[in-house]
Write a structure and sequence with these properties.
The chain has 189 residues and is mainly α. It contains 8 helices and no strands. Helix 1 crosses helix 2, helix 4 runs parallel beside helix 6 and helix 7 runs antiparallel to helix 8. It is elongated.
C-alpha cells in the first residue's frame, strides 16, 4: 500500500457516510411535493460530487427505491420495537406512525411510479414486509380484545392508507384518523 492510500475500512466508512448524506438530503428534498429536485440539487444538498452521487445511485429510480426501502425499514423497526408494550397502546401508536409513514412517502412513491410501474417488486415486497412486521402487534391487540374480531390487519392498514390520501392539513385529517382508530376497538353493548 502506498502512503497516499487510505486503508479499505476507512474508505468503506466514508462511502457509507456519503450514501447516508445523499439519502438524508434526498429525503428532505423530496419531502416537499411542490419542489422540482434534480440529481445535481441532491448532490449539492448532500455536499458530495456528482460522481459520488452516481456511484451510489446510478439513476433517479435507484435513489428513489433506496429512499422507499429506508422508509419501510424504519416502519418495520418501529413495529418490532413496540412489541412487548401494552397491546392496545402499541398497536394504536404504530398505526399513527404508519399514517405518518404513508403521508411522508407519498411524494417518493409518486415519483418512483413515474420511473417504474406498480408491478415493481419494491411496492409489493415492501408492503409484505410492513404487514409481516405489524402482524405480531395486531395479533397481540386482538388477543387483548383491543381490536374487533371481524377485522383483519390488512383492513386496518387499508383504512389508515385511505385516510392518508385526504389532501388536507393535519388539523382536518388527525380527528378522522383518531375516529377510525377508535373504531377498530370492539363494539360496546
Amino acid at each position: 500500500m502506498t502512503s497516499n492510500q487510505a486503508p479499505a475500512p476507512a474508505r468503506r466508512l466514508d462511502a457509507a457516510r456519503n450514501r447516508d448524506k445523499i439519502l438524508a438530503a434526498a429525503r428532505t428534498a423530496f419531502a416537499d411535493p411542490q419542489a422540482e429536485v434534480s440529481m445535481a440539487e441532491i448532490a449539492r444538498r448532500a455536499g458530495v460530487g456528482m460522481a459520488t452521487l452516481y456511484r451510489n445511485f446510478p439513476g433517479r429510480r435507484e435513489l428513489l427505491e433506496a429512499l422507499f426501502a429506508d422508509e419501510v425499514d424504519a416502519i418495520c423497526a418501529a413495529a418490532e420495537a413496540m412489541g412487548g408494550a401494552d397491546p392496545k397502546v402499541a398497536f394504536t401508536a404504530w398505526l399513527h406512525r404508519f399514517f405518518a409513514f404513508i403521508t411522508s412517502k407519498r411524494p417518493i412513491a409518486t415519483e418512483l411510479l413515474e420511473h417504474t410501474d406498480s408491478a415493481n417488486p419494491i411496492f409489493g415486497g415492501n408492503r409484505d414486509r410492513v404487514v409481516a412486521a405489524a402482524r405480531p402487534l395486531f395479533a397481540a391487540a386482538k388477543e387483548a380484545h383491543a381490536v374487533r374480531d371481524d377485522l383483519t390487519l390488512e383492513q386496518a392498514l387499508d383504512l389508515v392508507i385511505a385516510i392518508a390520501t385526504i389532501h388536507r392539513d393535519s388539523r382536518y385529517v388527525e380527528p378522522i384518523l383518531q375516529a377510525a382508530i377508535d373504531g377498530l376497538s370492539p363494539r360496546r353493548p
